[in-house]
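Note to self: the last two entries modelled the partners one at a time, which told us nothing about the interface. This time every component goes in together.
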Amino acid sequence: MTARVGVVTFPGSLDDKDAARAVSLAGAEPVPLWHDDADLKGVDAVVLPGGFSYGDYLRCGAIARFAPLMSELVPAARSGALPVLGICNGFQILCESHLLPGALTRNSSLRFVNRDQVLRMENTRTAWTNDYEEGQEILVVLKSGEGSYVADEATLDRLESQGRVIARYVGANPNGSRRDIAGVTNEHGNVVGLMPHPEHAVEALTGPSTEGLGFFTSILSHLAAGAPAHA
Amino acid sequence: MSEVPGLDTVATAHDTPDAPQPYAELGMAKDEYERVHEILGRRPTAAELAIYSVMWSEHCSYKSSKVHLRQFGEKAPENGALLVGMGENAGVVDVGDGRAVTFKIESHNSPSFVEPHQGAATGVGGIVRDILTMGARPVAVMDALRFGPLEADDTKRVLPGVVSGISFYGNCLGLPNIGGEIGFGPGYLGNPLVNALCVGVMRHEDIKLAQAPGPGNKVVLFGSTTGPDGIGGASVLASANFDEESHAKRPSVQVGDPFMEKLLIECSLELYAQDMVVGIQDLGAAGISCATTELAAGGTGGMNVQLEKVPLRDHRLTPEEILMSESQERMMAIVEPGKMADFLAVCDKWGIVATEIGEVTDVTPEEAERGGRLVMTWHGETIVDMPPRTASDEGPVYERPYTRPKDQDALQADDAAELPRPQGDTELRDQLLRVLGAPGVGDPTWITQQYDSYVRGDTVLSTPHDSGMIRISDDSDRGVALSTDGNGRFTRLDPYVGTQLAYAEAYRNVATTGARPLAVTNCLNFGSPEDPEVMWQFAEATRGLADACQQLGTPVTGGNVSFYNQTGEVPINPTPVIGVLGVIDDVNTRLRSGFDSEGSRVFLLGTTRPEFGGSAWADVIHEHLGGLPPQVDLAAEAALGEVLVTAAEQGLAVAAHDLSDGGLGVALAESALRGGKGLRVELDGDAFTELFSESGARAIVAVEPGREEAFVALAGEHGVPITQIGTVGGDGLTVTHPGGVVEVGLDELRTSYEAAIPTVMDGV
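The predicted structure of the combined assembly is written out below.
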């Protein structure tokens, strides 16, 4: 049976169509999920796409956290059962929901930045990264105004020691993220937050590469293996 | 007397025929005011005066430009692709497969000077709503920008603000920014130009029009609430009729909320898909005045509106202020009564406030003859009773006098060919790098990397390529390409030729990426129409564009005029920005501008003449503007376009780049930098002329070994001069010429190309 991967649309979600396309290209069935319905429709995994949910009012992701859908999603994700990938605004929502530690703050340039960005994959044992090789460099898209990952030193040290940094920026740090962190995972390896956009690097015609597709094929491999990932 | 203190009702207007009215403060001429008297058979109420003053303003009525713009219709070429022409919110063209695209460019110049961030942001918002109103899903934006000299203090205020405004609004809407252009010049210091373009895609049957048919249908206002923003003139009315103490400070620049606009887009598209609207209009300039009069005039002619039902964010607003408010993110729909409940349910799903404020009415034949009947009440009292067509379609039309500028002959006689030219290879090399790095020629990445170009996942080409290109849907290989171009220096030297050159450049840019040019939009930025010399520039420019479009078979589908771009008596260089849209059958065949295939042959298409008037070289090296612009040869542009499009279709070319600002030298450098490969070039003629001339109808093309013969044959077939000038390879740009050799490494090219804007804006 084809894996069913939910893609959530909040008011202000922008990359939901793109995430659904990436899910399709990877061979899974994208299932639209609506922020206002506390119903996960029995999906096997969920993508929280990029955008400006609720206009990013208050703080990026701060209001989305309270959406009815999140009341279903958060416990399932926290337990390690439901794989969730948060991209950009989705990463911000995961942090605001305390599914991932740390926070995303204004870029150090104080400007929105859109660029093709090389990442180095560091943890390839998660539900969303297992199709990559450790140390592999991939070219994806970074486009965000508040993409600077921050956490206190103890948290950063803990993330490092537990291997929970999944990807780092290669080359000049594009946004001031601590320790060049582009993405992190939770202790179960089922929840991954990533500031850059792998869903924009899935077609040679429209993306800088097709190297972002691995996030979406990884979840299929993970589900096919039938076992929870371990960080 | 009215129940509401100070309310100027129709009855009051009858009773007090001689009450003084501030028509002049509202920008209305005495004879215009008198015409309103004639139409109504009495003096207008304050609300009616508000409506007429905004609807008959230059901005809304095109009263100075109309007689010239008519040529776009009169000279329109036969073109079966045009589904909706000028006059609607935006033109619509057929792109095949049952799909249509709609596109338009519009200015937001003055607000962007006053408050750059919000001014530019709401410019994007406005044009996106125009496209949405046609029934299309907006799929991309681009923008043409002009600023004062880069180093000027005020440019450091205006440029980052404009860019952050476009970035903030466009990014938050989820619309990729796929291109545009940027220029700098002294005249734009107090008159920056912010021209925003949007393109949308729909199926033929989804086209919506601004109309209000069917008596009994409901008039629904949805989107943001109405506030005091963007009200300029209304305060005059207010102070004339109301206690001044009751009025808060009013910002004259509108404030944008892109989140609301994003919801409005999704909500409207869902309403369209469920066939819930019979007519629709966005609220832009002139707000409710414009939407009600235009919808009514486009329908039965009759409409009743209860103005007090308009949801307000400031309860102190007077009826006149409500009519004139330019609060953003609002739409007006005409809805059948039986569909109201479902309409409101869709709005509710998206968290959009929707309010029924009136209904479509029938009119008598006599009323129809007069221009329909729009009645508005305020808590039961009639404050508007007027024929809407007289405001929306029958505004004043002026034949402004025009005269060739006194300095035009002297300007054209000041030939740039007389300027000192570089002596020797060192100077040639130095001048090439200076032109390459000049603001407006050099790298715009500091600006464009603040825009999301990837969202929606259909962007095939974006900045820095010659045109932006969008795949129109996931299930089709069809695409549309768009380019905007304008060159105020050329247009100043000869507005007729300069406008045709702008058009030709946009046409060429589209063809260079492999798309066939199909239709045109324009944003005409000029000084005051009351200055006969400016009016001459305008008359020449419009004549030039209409003639060019007729000759190359691309109709003008719509556009916008921006007058009064001047500081004191000094107008900007006339800056018509021309947008050309093209169609490509298979986006996989598109051509990029970077030459990255080692060993490919480099060909120059077209004829290079010693043409330096208005060139980037004359401007950058000598700060000179004089002489004549390059000749325009539209037949040569069409032939070049055919060669480029065919080469792309047949896979004969691997990359191509058009020649424009800076000429061949800049084009070679850009193609080398974007491809990350050097170029070895040999030129037979005078190196200076070859490198810096800005003759039109030229492009460079990279062709893989083995295909040269076929490509040369193709050019020959279309009578396009072709020269093999070099090969892709090496570590830099090497130009060998009869007098010597110029060599620049890629790193040095890159440093020169990229430095200008970051150096000034970041101080690095």
